[in-house]
Design brief:
The complex is a heterodimer.
Chain A lengths: L1 H17 L4 H12 L2 H17 L10 H17 L18 H5 L9 H7 L3 H10 L2 H12 L4 H8 L3 H25 L8
Chain B lengths: L4 H6 L1 H5 L5 H13 L1 H23 L7 H27 L5 H43 L2 H4 L4 H12 L1 E3 L2 E2 L2 E2 L2 E7 L2 E10 L2 E9 L7 H4 L2 E4 L3 E7 L2 E8 L2 E7 L12 E3 L2
Antiparallel strand pairs in B: 1-11, 2-3, 4-5, 5-6, 6-10, 7-8, 8-9, 9-10
Helix pairs in contact in B: 3-4
Chain lengths: 194, 269
């Protein structure tokens, strides 16, 4: 019995040292995925409970952070993702690769034309733009831009093909740029070359 | 061969996502120095990306208060306590009633599904971890490789067995020792090239048995008379060169080194 206790204690200790420190990162990603604090909190708790139950399946020495993100992403996709998998509201073909770059007065005497635009985009605009991204896109964008996971790590976490990860990131980036440009216009940004 | 605008543009996304290989990145930067249009384009795109990376952090930050995180941590600890208590409980009782058998069967099914999930996940990462570990171990304790080592004799054996001629130094890194190891079920010759506090490992094995999985092939960065794959993992960089029937892998923890340029030798036939 004492031996069992020692094993259990060791497991608990390991988990606290290796897994728990990733809570902040999981929460900030959860917040952007679920778009509200309550769901984000529940999602993170569920992820840790599941991770702890299956801690003996985790291969020590491998990437614990990615493993936890995979568990959380799975729960998110199965239980939290918007139930209506509505088709893309935006027609991606409308946004060309040069969208934002083309909108900036590049080549004008202004040396950093994008700085002007950034000044017209407020934190809340960025938050809204990210929240407006369709779930599938927001997920890979957050994992890449916020958490710095590589294409391969994101592919592992989301069970997507590497090429799909890449194309979703590309399209997510273009969608964000388009949204932000529209906010900037609303906030009074005027194109020099308009 | 200089890169043209179209080739540079094709690598824009990889560069923004920090996924471009060292070689590609170097070539793109060389192109940008020569091409004002592309320079401006990359500058603006990188500036937008920086803005987004920064804003995606800060624009939600209000909600990430530390007392909130602390109370979450406590809640999670509470859940862990419950699970611990459950485990103690289940060890005391013995399975017997049909209901408990049903429960344990359900748990097994759940376990099996999680197991398949976890094994699928790390397959490619697990694949290379033994190489990283071998490299780290050698860098920490090189004497195992150098003690009683006859360099000339060893190079002769490698040349004879593999038809491969090893360069005994590269850019200040010199070959000082080696030994045969079993890594991932393959017979691997592990050579070490230290320089000051730094060390590069070279692994030589048969390309027939050491197979690079298809998903890793997506990271192939050059294909001339060699196939080179760049695999950046957990602080240890691995580059795979397929040369004839040999798989030659270089490993380094120093990311400053142009590891892809570190060609350890050449085929003799």
């Amino acid at each position: 019995m004492a031996e069992q206790n020692a094993v259990a204690l060791k497991k608990r200790k390991e988990f606290e040292v290796q897994a728990l420190p990733h809570m902040d990162a999981l929460y900030r990603t959860a917040l952007r995925m679920t778009k509200n604090e309550k769901d984000a909190e529940d999602l993170v708790q569920e992820a840790f409970v599941k991770a702890y139950r299956f801690w003996d399946k985790f291969d020590t020495g491998t990437n614990c952070r990615a493993w936890l993100f995979k568990i959380m992403t799975n729960i998110f996709i199965n239980d939290y993702r918007s139930k209506s998998r509505s088709p893309m509201a935006v027609n991606m073909d409308d946004i060309d690769d040069n969208f934002l770059y083309g909108q900036l007065a590049v080549g004008s005497k202004e040396s950093n034309p994008e700085k002007d635009l950034f000044n017209k985009i407020f934190d809340d605009d960025v938050k809204k733009a990210i929240e407006t991204l369709p779930d599938d896109f927001r997920l890979v964008v957050v994992l890449s831009f916020l958490e710095g996971f590589s294409y391969q790590e994101i592919a592992d976490i989301t069970d997507l093909q590497l090429g799909t990860v890449k194309s979703r990131l590309h399209r997510g980036r273009k969608l964000l740029q388009k949204e932000l440009f529209e906010y900037a216009i609303k906030n009074g940004y005027v194109k020099d070359n308009a | 061969m200089m890169m043209d605008c179209q080739q540079a543009f094709a690598l824009l996304q990889d560069i923004l996502d920090k996924e471009a290989s060292q070689i590609d990145e170097k070539e793109v930067r060389a192109h940008l120095k020569k091409c004002g249009h592309c320079f401006e384009r990359f500058r603006v795109e990188e500036s937008i990306q920086e803005f987004l990376n920064e804003k995606i952090k800060t624009s939600f930050a209000v909600e990430e208060k530390s007392d909130k995180l602390e109370s979450m941590r406590l809640d999670i600890m509470g859940h862990l306590d419950e699970i611990d208590a459950e485990c103690q409980e289940s060890k005391k009782t013995t399975f017997g009633s049909p209901f408990k058998i049903f429960l344990s069967a359900a748990a097994l099914v759940l376990l099996a599904s999680i197991w398949s999930l976890s094994t699928g996940f790390f397959s490619h990462q697990e694949y290379y971890i033994p190489l990283e570990q071998a490299h780290w171990a050698a860098a920490e304790n090189s004497s195992v490789y150098t003690q009683g080592f006859d360099k000339a004799e060893y190079l002769g054996i490698i040349e004879q067995n593999f038809n491969y001629n090893i360069n005994s130094s590269f850019d200040g890194y010199s070959f000082v020792g080696a030994k045969k190891e079993q890594i991932m079920g393959n017979d691997v010759e592990h050579l070490i090239f230290p320089k000051d506090d730094d060390c590069i490992s070279i692994f030589i094995t048969s390309a027939d048995t050491f197979v690079i999985p298809d998903n890793i092939k997506a990271t192939m960065i050059k294909n001339s008379n060699q196939e080179i794959y760049d695999h950046n993992c957990r602080g240890c960089r691995l580059i795979f060169h397929k040369v004839g029937s040999l798989m030659i892998i270089t490993a380094s923890t120093n990311k400053e080194i142009e590891l892809a340029d570190f060609i350890p030798g050449h085929l003799t036939i």
